[in-house]
TrEMBL record:
Annotated family: Belongs to the RNR ribonuclease family. RNase R subfamily.
Record field: compositional bias (Basic residues): 739-749
Identification of the protein by name: Ribonuclease R
SMART domains membership: RNB, S1
Keywords: Cytoplasm, Exonuclease, Hydrolase, Nuclease, RNA-binding
Segments for region (Disordered): 716-749
EC number from the UniProt entry: 3.1.13.1
Localization in the cell: Cytoplasm
Catalytic activity entry: Exonucleolytic cleavage in the 3'- to 5'-direction to yield nucleoside 5'-phosphates
Amino acid sequence: MEQMPSKEQILQWITDNPGLSAKRDIAKAFGIKGAARIELKRILGELAETGAIAKKGRSYRDPEGLPPVSILVITGPDAQGDVFARPMEWTGEGEAPRILFVPKKGDPALAAGERILARLSPVDVGEYQYEARLIRHIGTNPLRVLGVFRAGAEGGRIVPIDKGQDKEWRVGRDMTLGAKDGELVEGEAVGRRNMGLPQARVTAVLGDPSGPKAVSLIAIHQHGIPDQFPDAVIAEADRAQPAPLEGRTDLRDLPLCTIDPADARDRDDAVYAEHDTEPGNPGGFVVWVAIADVAYYVRPGSALDREARKRGNSTYFPDRVVPMLPDVLSGDLCSLHQHVDRACIAVRMRLDAQGAKISHRFVRGMMRSVASLSYEQVQAAVDGNPDAVTAPLLEGVLRPLYAAYAATKHARALRQPLDLDLPERRIELSEAGEVTSVSFKERFDAHRLIEEFMILANVAAAEELVRLKRPLLFRVHEEPTPEKLDALREVAEASGFVLAKGQVLQTRHLNTLLAAAQGTEFDELLNITTLRSMTQAYYFPQNFGHFGLALKNYAHFTSPIRRYSDLIVHRALIAGHGWGKDGLSAQDIETLDETAKLISDSERRSMAAERDTTDRYLAAYLAERVGAEFTGRISGVQRFGLFVKLDETGADGLIPVRSIGREFFHFDQDSQTLTGADTGMTIGIGQRVTVRLAEAIPVTGGITLDLLEIEGGAMPRAAPRKGRFNPRKPGQAAAREGKLKRKLVRKRR
């Protein structure tokens, strides 16, 4: 018998031979026989207790590795067409290993979401850690449903909360997971649907759906937003230490300050301005914008990086935030709190007297904010009502910021970015999470000041990386499509305004239209319609400009705590200036296209979740006012009804077409109108209406309205046409039924 191997030797064997990890295989490999196997069993037991290996059945394996036969989920092909997968179960630290699927002749084509049983072979090629070969095709990832559980004798049903999903799901008695009647649950489809309701099983019980604090939780689950950080990510964040001053430009003497909403959860940008004393720039300014150096803490390829990329951005709700980074970073080490040293990447910009940027310079620095201020606080100070915090900063910090901002307004007027005026709703919640009021947020010059300086810094970052010839993610906003412009033009003409044809569209043309409508009853309508005519902005490695801002070069640089795109730009600046080894990696560059698509999609996901949450809060706020009358404006027309935006809250409600008068309405897709078949009455976007609240359902966010008046007049009643079916007329209903039966008999023959 050979000498008993050490624990290190056993661990190495298990790692190198994942397919031969049973005790007998290990014993055979090391020539262990007889009573010596008892000692081997003891050693394996100790290794399992310490977590060095994991025992499953009679086999042992590296807990950081995968078993030789695993169930995988296909994640889809990359840009080169290679198909990758992830394991269904992963208990190791960090993100699961990447697996390349290697098809053989006769294997089926696999799409994202499909599950397979595969044999794995460990490889070491950097891009992926395993190769997989198909054993059996299992099927697709089961369809998921979020809804209210209704208990029954045979188990129960799930009633979906999604407004677009009206079918219920049947749940067997042994698949309820202990859910009680009325609880919010998450489920997944099981079995095949033949006849009747589709079947599902409950996979998670989420509690009372009517509870105020369940509103955002519903959106989080419904849209699949990751809201729990893996242990490896939390552990990595907990190990982070403050960045040292070494190798950084010391900016701690600059009186930089942060200006944010009063309830800001993170502070990632600080500003400072002063008059330019350099010759040749009379009346000019120097503006500093310092941004949290998140790249120092979130390194390429780390667990933190993989999780941040997966999330794409933070998602904000009235009662909570789902952050991109753990709170120890987003709320502490990366947040530019007052009076503490914080690592930053800053840009010094020189502006001329008209606010045009004439030069910029980037540094990797260390700053110390002099104050954490709110928009309201800053505006009050400049308007003559400083408090104890802003009074000492008024002359040396705040007034120079406003003076520099005043200069930028000249440059902005020349550039003519799209000037939409869309008030933002503010939902106030009580401690219990109930809606106490819905109002529109006030906008101050303090808001516009920060927005303008952030745009300047984003432009500087894009221009700097173009100059350095470094890859980056641009923020792209393409011009509207001809079809959307035609729709906007029709609404404008119907409202008495003109948007000329036959010219290359520029934002100044749209601004002329919006300015003409300002102060009229069509003001809000044309702002909303113009917004809807715009294409959605997205991230892309190639530069196609930003139409809405009227800018040639634009990238997101100013919010790396809450946007992964900005972290990529920071890394590109670090690599371009040689500031350290934590710059843009080769893997970052190789996957830029994939990253751009991923974070553009996650941004849309967050927007949809935030919008759905607002709808549910508004429905909850209005639920106790069913029967009340409201004024509003028609904001959308579809075949099935009218959408109305209420003046008081900005909530959107639906008037079903069946409840509009007593006649048939023809829908015109091009003009976005409904026209009565009998009265000839035309209903279109922008018309003023008075409505009655018929129903408000907080769980779905659905609001249903009854139309009372349109443009100040009551709905006209259509006279019954000759031969028109009237169910109230004696004998006509029976005659109609008999006619339908005779028609059905003839059809069957």
